[in-house]
Amino acid sequence: MPSAKQVKQPFISQTELNKIDRYHRERKKSGAYAPWVTVRQSHTQGRGQILSSHKADHQIHLLSEGELLAFLKLEHEPDVTAIFEQWPLPILETMDIAKHLNVAHPGAYMDRVKHNGKTPAKTMTTDLLAIRRDNAGKNHISPYSFKYEYALSEDEESLRRVRRTRQKIAIEQDFWLAQGAKLEIIHETHICETTVYNLEYLRGFADYPSLIDTTSEIYQQIVSHLQRQFIKHTQSTLARHLSHVARELELAEYHVETVFKHAAYHDQFALHLDQRIERYLPLPFEHIVNPYAYR
Description:
The chain is α+β, with helices and mostly antiparallel strands. It contains 8 helices and 6 strands, in the order H-E-E-H-E-H-E-E-H-E-H-H-H-H. The strands form 2 sheets. A 4-stranded mixed sheet has the order 3-4-5-6. The chain has a two-stranded antiparallel ribbon with strand order 1-2. It starts with 13 loop residues before the first helix and ends in a 30-residue tail after the last helix.
């Protein structure tokens, strides 16, 4: 049986190699991570977001609403200690994988005019790379790619587009397998939008890091007083709880709210995160827990 015809690959240009070299030199010089693609460089600027995170030492660049959903979900997981976005994959290795799979490596087709009509290869990236720490204190890498379900559905997209998406995923999967990691594909249906809505509110505790000292007496007093309020007045709104405790402890309300956000984010209050948390509504409790059971 004759072998399949080899797919024509884009070529690796000196321009791309120079860009890669410059990127790594800048990372080494600064000592800090930076995404390969930023929101400003992306063609999806209208849907991109730049945000800070208590699990990253750099500004996070997310190129779609879907990536934001996935990022906020990962950020909340307690064993995730760091997250990197738009992680660049080594182009020589991904090109070898593409040749082995006999699929076309991603290329910068718009740049053909700069290369006498030849298509230059472009560096592939992984959407999110999480660092997880196990119970023994050992770190593991967990790569993630976000894909909207329609992008892999032949009922909603053309067969050609779906096949091409799957080919690019296959290259990425094989790269990470060679690193001893499994690429996880996240769809929007894997994530509860209400939970993400709540996490966006609760993660605001990071705006006031000086107020979050979980060993301090004042932190524990706020949590304890909030807990008593929740038990005594189950139908009171969150705003009433915060206002009452602020007056009781003679603290600024934003201080009390910051501690509430931190404690709730870390599951101290056992809230239903799949039900909306609003200042003007009673809190959606699963059950009332010991305020000192902080993990």
